[in-house]
Amino acid sequence: MTQAAYTAPFRTLNDIVTFEKEQEASWLTAGTLYQAFCNTVRHYEDKTALTALPPGDPLADGASITFGQLLGKVNQTANMFLDAGLAEGETVCHLLPLSFQAFYTLLGAEAAGIVNAINPLLEPEHILGIAEAANATILVVPGEKLSEEIWQKALYVRERLPGLKALFVVGGGSECDGKTVLNFDEAMVSQPADRIVNMRERGLDDIVGYYHTGGTTGVPKLAPHTNRMQLIQMASTGFLMGMSDNDSVLAGLPLFHISGSIVTGLVPLLAGASLVIPSPLGFRDPLVIGNYWRLVEKYQITILGAVPTMLSALLNIPVGEADISSLRAGMTGGSAAPVEVLKAITDHSGVPMLEGYGMTEVTSFTTMQPRDGEPRFGSVGMRGPYVDIKAVIIDENGKIARDAKTDEIGVIVMKGTCVMPGYVQQVHNAAAFAGEGWINSGDLGRIDAEGYIWLTGRAKDLIIRSGHNIDPSLIEEALHEHPAVELAAAVGKPDSYTGEMPVAYVQLKPDMSVTQDELKDFARERIAERAANPADILFMDALPLTGVGKIFKPSLRADAIERVFTQELGSLSLSSDKATISVENHPTHGMMAVVSLSGSPDADLEKKIVDKLGAYTVSHSLEWSA
Question: I want to staple 171 with a disulfide (CB 3.0 to 4.6 A). Which of 57, 74, 146, 338 is the partner?
Answer without folding.
Answer: 146
